[in-house]
Each structure stands twice: as C-alpha cells, then as structure tokens.
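Hey, I was hoping to borrow your eyes for a little while. I've dropped the whole record in just underneath, so have a look:

——
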Amino acid sequence: MLTNQSNSLELPKIISVDDHVIEPAHLFERWLPSKYRGRGPKPVTAGIGDLQYVGGKYRHTVDPDGQVTDWWEYEGQFFPYKRVIAAVGFDRDDMTLEGITRREMRPGCWDPAERLKDMDVNHVEASLCFPTFPRFCGQTFAEAHDKEVALACVRAYNDWMVEEWCGDSGGRLIPLCLIPLWDVDLAVAEIRRNAARGVRAVTFSEIPTCLGLPSIHSGYWDPFFAACEETGTVVNMHIGSSSQMPAASPDAPPAVQATLSFNNAMASMTDFLFSGVLVRFPQLKLAYSEGQMGWIPYALERADDVWREHRAWGGVRDLIPEPPSTYYYRQIYCCFFRDKHGIDAIETVGVDNATFETDYPHVDSTWPHTQEVAAAHVGGLRGDVAYKILRGNAIRMLGLPFDRDQRPTSATG
C-alpha cells in the first residue's frame, strides 16, 4: 500500500462518477416534441403487485390494491419506481422491492437543487448520474416498437439532462447522455450533437449482445467508438447495462446477483481487452461503473498470461500487439465505493485508473456518510494518491474544469 507518512490526510471533496437520477414526472411532457407526446412515456400513480425475478429481469404488475407507486407507462408497458433505487433516507431494513412515489422519496432523487444540497452534506463536489426509467444505457427505448418516438425520447432525455438537470448546477452535475442503441449512425449523430454543447460522457451496454445487438468484436460499433474518441466522450458502462445480472441457481435470492454483480464488469473488460477496439482507438476512454476493483489485479494477470501463452490458438496473435494490461492502464477506469481489498492492491489496480462513487440514491449508497467511508479507505494512502482516487482521475477522465492549477501529473495521460 502507498502510505501517508504524516498520517494526517485532509480529505479532498469527492467527485462521484456513478450516481443515479429519478426522472421527474414532467420530463417528457416538457421536453418531448408535442407531436410525439401522445405516444411517449406518461407518468402514472397506481398500486403495485408482486415483484418476481424471472430470466434475469424483474417483472411487475399493476394491482389496484397494492402499494401506491409512481410508474411510467410506455407502449402499454408499466415501469415502477422501487424503494431500493430511491433508498436514501430509509432505514436499512426498509430498503425493499416495494413500490414508492416521488412524494415518499428524498427530493434530491429528482430535484437538482435538492440534489446539490445532499451533495453538500455528503462531502461531494460533483456527480455523474445514470438514468432510471430508460434503464442504465437506454434499453427501454431500444426495446420500443416505434423507433421514431424512441429516438425523440432519447433526444428529449438528453435535452432534459443537459439543460434542466445539469443546467443550473454550476458544473457540479455532470451530463451523462443516451444514444439510440438500435442504429449506430444515429448514435454517432447524437454523440456529436451532445459533444457540441460540452457533453463528455455517454452510457453504453457492458455486453451489447445480451440486448440482441452486435458485439464489439464485429466492427459494427467502430463508428461510435471513433466518434467518442474524436470528441473526447467517455464510454460509461454500468453493471446491469446488459439487462441481466450474473446468477448461479435459478432460484437463488437476489442477494446472489448483488454479490456477483462485479462479474459483469470483469466479463466486459476482458471482452474489450481482447477485441482490438482499444488498439484501433488508442485515445478512447472506457469507464466501468459500480463494478468495484478488487478483482482487477488477477483479471489483468490472467489476461496477460493468456496473451503470452495462448495468443496463437486464442485468436489474438495478430489482433493484440501488446499485453492486454497495457490497454487497461492506458484507457480504462474503474470505480468503487466499498472495496478495501482493491485499496490494498491500488498499485496494481492503478493509481491513475481508480475513481470513486457514492451510488446516490440506491440501496448501496454511502450517503450521508461518504466522507467517513472514503476516509476509511484512503486514509492510509499518500495525499497525492488519495486526491487522484477521490477526484483527480475523474477530472482527467471527463475533462472537468476543476483544479486546473492543482492537477498532479499522470503516468497514463
């Protein structure tokens, strides 16, 4: 471990690269063009039935006698909000899969001014937020039948994200935009449209084939990766953005999926390391959200060993010219919130690759105790390393206008 010899570390304000937003009920009424509103998402308040985990997804039914819940109705499907995704402020034993209304949520879940207040009490300066109703990378719109309306919804969400959610925050709320996953040319156009107004982050699926989309090995996504590289747009991949979570026995409780969730990030990162994407696009930046980092040292060791010993029959002899870890240290960021094992191995994880998150307002969130949690992790590190992990790497990754006169020199660019 890199130790702080003075043992008196002043904890810098945190930049969280993985938080979440609960969409306000007015989003599509205000931001979707009027000609699409009749076919777009509509807010609904109704009772919720039993929740079942089937085939890697939660299925919900409306029950007039059930817990009153806020939903979205879209193309005849209903999408409820649940306590686990708006958990801040509840006791741990009350963070359940029951439905919830916005009135019952902490206002910081959906109100940007209230979010900034909650960030202030949590020692957080800036925050990057993933969507909820569209799902982590916009799967809701990718699955829609009417793709004309779905495209309008993607653009409306992005306009709301940039102009309303982030607009009056003074840069503290960092825009994270969607793409129309079903059409790579439309995706490129949306990347360029948002980059022109300063957006430097897009959310993408960790494993696109799980969504019925082409794989990253196919070359189909190369125009998207090229546009992200050219505009400096970071490709952010949240666990579960493949619309499934790792599982063992089919009847295992959800706690099994929660424990194994890092497997998605590990699988996706290995996919990218052996895909050639990072070779063809050497300035492209990938960020893994909520994947933690304690697993990374062995994953890199194994990938490098496979490259050395098995690259001929493994199909990567002519595709990957250098050990896979080379591309990780150059182009990939991980993030964590509780991972002391990863901190113990921070030199191998990469002092220039690790970032921090608070996961507000999900059940895993460290709010309002993030300062104490962060201090417990980085308190034994050198001050410059703690700075990089808690904010410096996020600033460099996203090109944020913070600390320009304080930013330490990075070994990875």
